[in-house]
């Protein structure tokens, strides 16, 4: 990731079987950005629920999002970027994480950008992958529940959907290209906005004179 950009946090979301972990690990090797999982922010009570197959309610998950948001803001204050993997997030949850952008602005430095990459693949591909997992078998009912919970990115969100059907390294390369493209577009947009602000200020000054 080029140093000419302010810190960026790539949030990789996707249902089980989209290969978030493998893609994130490859991205980390290529960019040097550390990887953290949403699972790392769960308290022991949540872990016990998940271990026994219980679903987490909003009251369980919201504090986790707050910890993730604060962690992202802390990394931004130190001038570092990171990759965060997590299950599908609602628009409300994504906006909560984006509060890290405002928190980082308090430092007076360039704000971090939260870039959401949604990994997606056909259901049959996901089912085949889950069936071949050596660690544990994920029931199709769990996959279908996650697929039903997906809230697609809106047009006004900083992010993109990436096809995760291929090999993790190929998917990661696509993610990397997408991040670079979005960051460049974002920098250009910010530059244009700054120029417009300066022209507006000059016009106001001319009127006052």
Q: Topology, pairings included?
A:
Blueprint: E1 8-13, H1 20-31, E2 35-37, H2 44-51, H3 58-77, E3 82-86, H4 91-105, E4 113-120, H5 123-131, H6 140-149, E5 159-163, H7 168-208
Parallel strand pairs: 1-3, 1-4, 2-3, 4-5
Tell me about this structure.
The protein has 209 residues and is of the alpha/beta class. It has a single domain (8-208), classed as Rossmann fold, CATH 3.40.50. It contains seven helices and five strands, in the order E-H-E-H-H-E-H-E-H-H-E-H. The protein has helices at residues 20-31, 44-51, 58-77, 91-105, 123-131, 140-149, 168-208, and strands at residues 8-13, 35-37, 82-86, 113-120, 159-163. The longest helix has 41 residues, at 168-208. GO terms for molecular function: ATP binding; gluconokinase activity. It comes from Corynebacterium provencense. It catalyses: D-gluconate + ATP = 6-phospho-D-gluconate + ADP + H(+). One of its GO terms (biological process) is carbohydrate metabolic process.
């Amino acid at each position: 990731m080029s140093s000419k950009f302010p810190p960026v946090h790539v949030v990789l979301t996707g249902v089980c079987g989209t290969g978030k972990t493998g893609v994130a690990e490859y991205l980390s090797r290529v960019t040097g950005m550390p990887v953290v999982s949403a699972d790392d922010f769960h308290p022991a009570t949540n872990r016990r629920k998940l271990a026994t197959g219980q679903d987490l309610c909003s009251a369980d998950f919201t504090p986790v999002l707050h910890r993730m948001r604060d962690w992202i803001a802390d990394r931004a204050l130190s001038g570092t970027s990171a990759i965060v993997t997590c299950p599908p997030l609602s628009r409300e949850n994504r906006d909560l994480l984006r509060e890290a952008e405002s928190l980082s602005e308090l430092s007076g430095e360039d704000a971090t950008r939260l870039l959401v990459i949604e990994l997606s693949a056909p259901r049959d591909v996901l089912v085949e992958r889950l069936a071949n997992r050596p660690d544990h078998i994920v029931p199709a009912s769990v996959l279908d529940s996650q697929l039903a919970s997906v809230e697609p990115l809106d047009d006004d969100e900083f992010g993109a959907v990436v096809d995760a059907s291929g090999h993790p390294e190929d998917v990661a390369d696509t993610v990397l290209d997408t991040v670079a493209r979005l960051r460049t577009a974002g920098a250009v947009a910010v530059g244009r906005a700054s120029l417009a602000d300066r022209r507006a200020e000059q016009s106001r000054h001319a009127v006052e004179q």
